[in-house]
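G., the chain you wanted modeled:
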Amino acid sequence: MRSVASALLILLLAVPAAAQAPPGGLPPAPPSGEAPAAPAAPEAPAEEGPSDDALPPAVAPPPAPAAPSPQVVVIQTLPPAPWAPPLTPPTVEPTLPPPPPPSEPRIRNGFSLKGFAGPRFQILHGHTIWGGAADLALGVQFKNFGALHGEFGLGFGATDGGLRVTTFDQAVTWEFILGDRWRLGLGPQWLLFSMQRATGSDDVGAWGYGGLAFGAVDLLDGDTSNMQLIFQTRYTRLDEDLHLFTFGLSLGGRFKTP
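Predicted structure as C-alpha cells:
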C-alpha cells in the first residue's frame, strides 16, 4: 500500500510540470557544478487601452486667420518744374507818420504898444537925483528882425539938497529879439531937463541929447499881450560941462496885434 501511494504522488506532481514545459521537451540540464537556472516568468499580457468606441468625438480646432496681404502704395512723381529766375520781393517803403503842422511863431508882424514905469536914479555933476519915470512906446514888430518904437517919457525927482527936477524925453529905439523871451534895445534920445533954482521958486531948463540902451525879459506871455521887466540906462549931454547919467528899473506891459 505504501508503494502505491508513493507512485500516485509522483504521478500527480509530474503531470503539471509536463503541461508547463515548452514544446520540444525539457530544457537541457545545466553543466555540472552550476545551479540550475530558474524558470523564466511568463510574460504578462499587454494591457489593452480603451477601445475607440469609448472615446468622445474629437473637436476640430478653428482655422488659423489668414495673414494680411501686403498693401502696395503707388507714389506718383510729378515732373520737375521748369527753371525760372528767382523773384525779387517788392521794396516796401516804411510808412512814417505825417509831420506835425508847423507851429505858428510866437513873434509875428504887427502893431506894438508898450507902457512901463518904475524908479529912477540920476547923477548930474556929482549930485544924485532920486525919482521915477513913466514911458510910452508905439511901434511895429517884425518877427524876423525885431521891433522899432518911438518912445515918450516923463520923469520927476529931487536932488539930495531938495531941489525939484523934471525931465521930458523922446527916443527912437530898435529892439533885438533873443530867443523867446529876451530883448535888447538901443537908440538915440533927446531930453528937456528942468530943475528948480536954489535962489527962487522958478525953474531953469536945458536941452540935451545922447543915447540909451536897455534889456528886457518877458515874464508872462500871451497871444496879444505880455509883461516885461526892463532895465534901462541913458546918457545925456546938457552942456559942455554938464553930463546926466540915468539908471532905471521898470515893470511894464506890451500889447500887440495877433
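Residues 212 and 234 are 4 Å apart (CA to CA).

Shout if anything looks off.
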